[in-house]
Amino acid sequence: MGEDTTVKSVETTFRIIEALHDRGGAGVTELASALSAPKSTVHNHLQTLEGNEYVVNDDGTYRVGSRFLELGAHARDRRAIYEVARPEVDRIAEETGELSGVVVEEHGRGVFLHRAKGDRAVHVDTYAGKRIYLHGTALGKAVLANLPEERVDAIADRHGLPALTENTVTDRGELADELAEIRETGIAFDDEERLDGLRSVAGAVTGPDGDVLGAVSVAGPTSRLRDERFREELPGVVRSAVNVIDLNVTYS
User: Fold this and answer.
1) I want to staple 116 with a disulfide (CB 3.0 to 4.6 A). Which of 90, 103, 148, 194 is the partner?
2) What does the alpha-carbon distance between residue 188 and residue 218 come to, in Å, rounded to a whole number?
3) Is domain 74-251 given the CATH code 3.40.309.10 in the classification?
4) Band of the pLDDT at 25, cuts 50, 70, 90?
5) Backbone phi and psi for residue 101, each to the nearest 5 degrees, phi listed first
6) Could you tell me the superkingdom of the organism this chain comes from (predicted)?
């Protein structure tokens, strides 16, 4: 077993930041209770974060500061897929009237870089920076299908294959079979596997060297994504977008 090089004070700082994010803001006492940490420790960390402009103190209620937005935008903009995928994601949303998005893989999770809403799009919990399990979405499965088998296994070892709905694939063998089919067709489906009542269709974007850069999708309610539209029409829309993005990545 390798040496544990975790710096506990840094770990505490990140736990505080995540707790503030989850709660939308909190005071020292609430954070100390939630983290089972001394109030003095929490207070000192918050003071340091505030001094470096990473949190804002509003009469004793601390909130995550917009400095993180600057860092997040920088991280997003450095992804090769972002600038070339964004216009196509916007076009998909406008053309279909549904929800469209682009996701990349990071630390074994999917991270939304951009999403666009058509005039009939449903309101779901996707936004830039949102992290999702890969095995429970069309976007994630499109990415997994283009990763080496050992990488897929490592992701499953780290994050598991938890059931997000009754339809989520939680068996490794079943997932492997589905990923093989996705590699053949170039299209991944999510049939109420992350959220009840929501379906989506996705395709992976690859770079000139064949490495997967991310995936784009279109999603909507089961009442509208039915039969031919779900299995034939929208896959065509996604394939067209992926083709454009692939070309732009290659020649940009």
Assistant:
1) 90
2) 11
3) no
4) very high
5) -160, 165
6) Archaea
The neighbour count for residue 130, using CB atoms within 10 Å, is 16
* DSSP structure string for 218-247: EEEETTTS-HHIIIIIHHHHHHHHHHHHHH
> 8-65 maps to which CATH number?
1.10.10.10
Q: For residues 13 and 47, what is the distance between their CA atoms, to the nearest angstrom?
A: 11
pLDDT for 132-142, tens place per residue?
Answer: 999 999 999 99
CATH 1.10.10.10-classified regions of the chain: 8-65
| CA distances from residue 13 to 46, 61, 82, 214 in whole angstroms, order as listed | 8, 17, 29, 30
- Please, is 243 exposed, middle or buried when counting C-beta atoms within 10 Å of its C-beta (0-12, 13-18, 19+)? middle
Distance CA 59, CA 73 (A): 28
Q: Residue 118: what residue type?
A: G
- The pLDDT, as a whole number, for residue 246 is 92
pLDDT at residue 125, rounded to an integer? 87
Query: Half-sphere exposure of 235 toward its Cβ, with a 13 Å CA cutoff?
Result: 15
Q: 5: which DSSP letter?
A: -
